[in-house]
Amino acid sequence: LMWAQQGATPGTPPKLRHTCEQGDGVGPYGWEFHDGLSFGRQHISDGALRLTTEFVKRPGGQHGGDWSWRVTVEPQASGTSSLPLVSLFFYVVTDGQEVLLPEVGAKGQLKFISGHTSELGDFRLTLLPPTSPGDTVPKHGSYNVFWSSNPGLPLLTDMVKNHLNSWFQHRPPGASPERYLGLPGSLKWEERGPSGQGQFLIQQVTLKVPFSVEFIFESGSAQAGRNKALGQLVGSQLTQALENHAAAFQERFERTFQLKEKGLSPEEQALGQVALSGLLGGIGYFYGQGLVLPDTGVEGSEQKVDPALFPPVPLFSGVPSRSFFPRGFLWDEGFHQLVVQRWDPHLTREALGHWLGLLNADGWIGREQILGDEARSRVPPEFLVQRVAHANPPTLLLPVLQMLEGGDPDDLAFLRKAFPRLHAWFSWLHQSQAGPVPLSYRWRGRDQALPTLLNPKTLPSGLDDYPRASHPSTSERHLDLRCWVALGARVLSQLAEQLGEAEAAAELGPLAASLEEPRNLDELHWAPELGVFADFGNHTKAVQLKSRPPQGLVRVVGRPPPQLQYVDALGYISLFPFLLQLLEPQSPRLGPLLNVLADSRHLWSPFGLRSLSASSLFYRQRNSEHDPPYWRGAVWLNINYLALGALHHYGHVEGPYKVQATKLYHELRANVVSNVWRQYQTTGFLWEQYSDQDGRGMGCRPFHGWTSLVLLIMAEEY
């Protein structure tokens, strides 16, 4: 679907809306309901217009069944005197030899499109005549069509913009005509481009708001096996189906998450439904080749090797943000699936299976999946290439742990099949990211120490600009990575035991025990002078960015010079042994971590735990002239979720910190939920991160990736 308001600004072409873009001025928008399978309802605010798009899928036949869409366009404000003229563009595109045939009526108008592909068999797509919203009274629409070869998915918007250049008259009976810009094409066969690159067929319908239009897909095999009395899923039948699905969604939602029963307000329940629906509605199926830089085995020598195109692969995955990150991210996906799994375990098995299908021969999975031309067109060039030496937090093990503890037979059957890949992935992580001393680990792929960077970033860690040792070196020991590996060893050894994989269990059990041994963790990462766990490396606090014309901001290193020491950067990383519940309830290290967590001079804010201590020299500091702070103070939902899970755990087991953990749990949960809800009420969006100073949403939006964890926080599911 594309759409445009005609004549909003006289003399300028209408703004054509198509893909979600961060700065397009559309919004708020998002899914009110989406069940991840067969039903959804989305609202979009666009200036003076409010669009509602909703669909129902009706299973049947051998190819997935039929589906029906309804798009309703209304004025944003009631009682508007001059109602705008709006064009909707429904298009069908193929990317190969598939057949599309427009069926043309007596007056040259398009009746429907019939087609055939190997995956879908025979099908028919029909655009029904527009009506007034909520009834069957037809409304007069003006039609235009355009049929060409497919220029490539990233170029569809521009192609339509460039062809939207001829004036037509919209003439409803009994009303004065109005001019609009339309597509000048026809359905003559010879106007198509060369075959083999696919087809692009677009129908434009233009009329006055308010109106509804229905667009239906009918599967040949579903029609053949169906009772003829059922008929098309349109009109009042579609309305009834949408109402039934909405009621069923709400009932299933309460059965699954029990927010009403747990005393949450109707507004908070609605937020939970939106969080889930936005995550499910963002799930995509991607296919294509990614750019990968092979591992040369020598750090810093990567530039001598050219990136290669990986073989084409499919990926069924959630996305962090439809507008800004519309693709799969490895460490985000583990958090996404914690939510999805509680709603539909089958979807989680599909997603995890696809991600594990990306494994290369060594056990590596790329952290960002940019598959095909359409995905590549949305990514800055410097982020296109994935490097085989670089890891990412293995968060897919979080839903794997849920499966293991849940004991569902289908989940266990899946894990049995997935075990060799999970084991290979973990083994690659454990071996390739090994640190300078036994049982230490180091993220490969820190940025080079450039004169313009305050602290070279560590993108593979997921915590991009979180401060690490000031001078990158092979002597570094990264606390968060060691904790992820410890969690991985724990989960994989439990899984191997349960599946009877004796050889793997014999290897993983002792590794897990060594990594969880408190003395080993203390020796490598407890910093007595800081009173917390920390990274270790070649470090000095005496670094700052100073203005040096004409270069701009430049890093200046003062005294004392860097030396091997624990890194003074109190924040999320300091908490990792607690966050991943690697500490015993009696651990003497737990108390100091709870104290810094609860201290407003450090991590506590009224809106959630901030990512970096408010007392840190790096707090809210830019990393370069063009790089604002990211993980340097803002509140992030994924880490707050882990913190709440850990507080919940330590508050439910016997130990000296049980009472403190319980108190902090209730206060933190209330702070996080109330702020996410307040920002949603104000802006209509879930956000990537939240300010630790005033709670406002920051970064990109809508962010229905891990911010959707607010639902599990409300449901107290950890």
TrEMBL record:
Keywords: Endoplasmic reticulum, Glycoprotein, Glycosidase, Hydrolase, Membrane, Signal-anchor, Transmembrane, Transmembrane helix. Pfam families: Glyco_hydro_63 (PF03200), Glyco_hydro_63N (PF16923). The keyword Glycoprotein applies. Residues 1-128 form the Glycosyl hydrolase family 63 N-terminal domain. One of its GO terms (cellular component) is endoplasmic reticulum membrane. In the context of N-glycan degradation, cleaves the distal alpha 1,2-linked glucose residue from the Glc(3)Man(9)GlcNAc(2) oligosaccharide precursor in a highly specific manner. Cleaves the distal alpha 1,2-linked glucose residue from the Glc(3)Man(9)GlcNAc(2) oligosaccharide precursor. This is Mannosyl-oligosaccharide glucosidase. It comes from Cricetulus griseus.
